[in-house]
Backbone:
């Protein structure tokens, strides 16, 4: 049997993750199966197991990719500015999250299940990317807000990143959630990810 070129082998995990990303735009986590992912790729369902052991591992890889993209975006944006006010910093980081809706959606709705059903080595690789994001944000605080102490920066991370876990449903409530709030007479004005994130950041940053 002819051996598959190494370049194709290396591309296949990216193809699988890209298919998962595409499906997640129109289907729920529960509706997405390895069979559905296979249909979006040139890879058979059994062959997917050569790269991922479960659907959850594919989603974990997608979330890892999202964090890496966010980190790269933040790094590039921070490098362009020698200084930023709290308002400018909040706006910059808030706007960067508008491009990371998939990140917010996964970690809000499916992260626990994804982590529980992924191999430890996959989870470790994801955590490395997550740590890189934390480090990037902490270094930006040190650069733009030198008055913040190490404890201040740690407190910031422990407050802002958990905040992100609950952000998605406030911006993208389901139809059922909207109807339930209407019946419960809860009036919430439409919000944007960037606006809510910036509001939180301004509360955490020094004046």
Residues:
């Amino acid at each position: 049997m002819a051996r598959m070129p190494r370049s194709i082998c290396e591309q296949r995990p990216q193809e699988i993750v890209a298919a998962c990303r595409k499906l997640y735009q129109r289907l729920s986590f529960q509706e997405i199966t390895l069979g559905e992912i296979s249909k979006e790729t040139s890879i058979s369902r059994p062959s997917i197991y050569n790269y991922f052991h479960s659907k959850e591992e594919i989603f974990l890889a997608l979330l890892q990719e999202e964090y890496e993209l966010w980190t790269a975006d933040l790094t590039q944006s921070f490098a362009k500015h020698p200084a930023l006010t709290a308002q400018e910093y909040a706006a910059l980081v808030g706007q960067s999250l508008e491009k990371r809706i998939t990140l917010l959606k996964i970690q809000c709705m499916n992260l626990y299940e994804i982590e529980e059903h992924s191999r430890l080595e996959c989870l470790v690789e994801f955590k490395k990317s997550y740590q890189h994001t934390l480090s990037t944000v902490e270094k930006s605080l040190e650069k733009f807000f030198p008055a913040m102490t190490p404890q201040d920066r740690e407190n910031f991370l422990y407050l802002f990143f958990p905040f992100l876990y609950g952000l998605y449903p406030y911006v993208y409530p389901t139809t059922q959630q909207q109807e339930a709030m209407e019946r419960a007479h809860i009036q919430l004005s439409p919000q944007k990810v960037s606006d809510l994130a910036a509001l939180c950041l301004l509360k955490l940053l020094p004046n």
Summary: Residues 1-51 form a domain with the Arc Repressor Mutant, subunit A fold (CATH 1.10.10). The first helix runs from residue 6 to 24.
